[in-house]
Amino acid sequence: MKRPITRLLSLIFALTCWPLSAVQGADAPAGRDSFERQWGGAAESAAERTPSRGGDAEAAIRKAFAERYPRIAIKSVTPTTIPGIYEVWAGGQLLYVDATGDHLLMGPLVDTRTRTNLSQQRLAELSRVDFASLPLDKAIALVTGKGERRIAVFSDPDCPFCKRLEKELAQMDNLTVHLFLLPLAELHPGAAAVARDIWCAGDRAAAWRAYMLENGRPEGGRECDTPLADIARLAADLGIGGTPAIVLPDGRRIDGAVPSARLEALLAGAH
Question: Tens digits of per-residue pLDDT, 192-215?
């Protein structure tokens, strides 16, 4: 029999549709260990802080994270509707901390009156991408039909969800996919070598499709300059930590393997 608090948490998560781990249909490290690996958490506590408000709290939070999670790059610190609790946007995640930065909460912020997942709303706002600013010269253009519709996809060649998405994309017409190769070495140690071979192939689009749809290994041994490091930095800056990640022309970002029917509907509403 579930304890009352367990039942309450289960109900909250069910009502808000908040994933307890990585996005379903996406490859991404998950859990506390991943948090520590990504942000380089320190075990010891820093000196106590007693900031007042506003800028003092932001400075204290940034200082605490710099000392305890030195690899994190905080993009913003914003007060929430809860007095004394601040939203931290970093690494593609939303975290909540107190004004000292000494206490951290991970999970959704929910308005219980409306059952609205406020964190999910904020994530949608913060994860928007300026499509026109994407460096398309570092992407592989996959064109079907006239290619008049456009999306960008960050994908790992050895990610099973990316292969699932590729099969969905193959069912669509009049589409250009700007493919950014994003091998996740932590999950797929051999993906970087595959990505390099695909980029260095004579026909990159054909090499990608052959590998993803037919398991055809690209010819190895070719040497060329690749944009893999630049793409990894771009993904980190955009808060993309898993694959596949889809960017629509209107800037919305969709994480995970999306069925073609849903992607068609999303594209129809993207202006």
Answer: 999 999 999 999 999 999 999 998
* Res. 30: pLDDT tops 90: no
Q: Which of 3-12, 64-73, 87-96, 233-242 has the lowest mean pLDDT?
A: 3-12
Smallest CA-to-CA distance from 177 within 210, 199, 200, 155 is with: 155
- Please, what are the domains in the chain? 23-126 (3.10.450.70), 131-268 (3.40.30.10)
pLDDT for position 216 = 87
Please say whether the dihedral angle defined by the alpha carbons of residues 89, 48, 39 and 242, taken in this order, is positive or negative: negative
Q: Is the pTM of this model over 0.85?
A: no
72 vs 62: CA distance, rounded Å: 10
